[in-house]
């Protein structure tokens, strides 16, 4: 078993990953400043004695050095994942998403960490009309957030080339699932849709609702990270993680309305700056290099997500 660090480990994806690692018997350290992560997401820490929590900010090099001491594998999930906030305040989001990633890589290099797995984003592809999105396509970021994520990828590749560090960047495609906070401005559209429909409030759709995404259940992402942990030498690879299927927002709402037995109609607003029209992943590289397969279909994942909100105390009336 290994000793691993999950940055942003109290967040949506990070906490699901941390719990899965603990279940496998690994010793897990979580680094989080709890600005968007929630301590309630780590309630499983009473079950596992091998969980350690470090409260701190990845913008602080000293915190990063402390967090990676004695660590074999780093899963770097910490970020400010808001396109809109990056448009409004690119300097702040850059300091976290690009500067914080560099701090983690420097600390990992100096402490002799074997492997760094970085959470990147499909936003890097921008609005290139070619579908599906393949890793060899030229990046075309439409927002500071997307550009910052691409900078992180390039740093990971350079750290492999210059220092021999094993690195891997996962381009996540529209993740949803348990522990996604519907009240957060950073939350994905599915968590907000579930909450609105359960409350009988018209969910807000930006644009005409025909924009589509490769909605991916968080369990798929966790599976990919666990596979990366045991993969052979990682040479700065970039890999899509999605389902390889796209669903429009209108189709998504129809499925959720059926699950929640809702008749509420959405409220359509003007499309947001920086949002892409269509996105779907080509996951052949993940299949080849990691033996990855997505698993459950979107409806199964949505049912699990709705059930989580119901069982976790009735989030916003769900």
Describe the structure.
- This protein is 39% helix and 17% strand.
- The chain is α/β, with parallel strands linked by helices.
- The strands form 4 sheets. A 7-stranded parallel β-sheet has the order 3-2-1-4-5-6-11, sandwiched between helices. Strands 7-10 form a two-stranded parallel sheet. A two-stranded parallel ribbon has the order 8-13.
- Helix 4 (90-110) runs parallel beside helix 5 (144-163), helix 6 packs across helix 8 (249-260) and helix 8 (249-260) crosses helix 10 (298-311).
- The longest helix has 21 residues, at 90-110.
- The protein is globular, with a radius of gyration of 19 Å.
- Mean pLDDT is 93; it is low at 314-318.
The CATH class label of the largest domain is: Alpha Beta
Q: From the alpha carbons, calculate the radius of gyration and give it in angstroms.
A: 19 Å
CATH topology category name of the largest domain: Rossmann fold
Count of the domains: 2
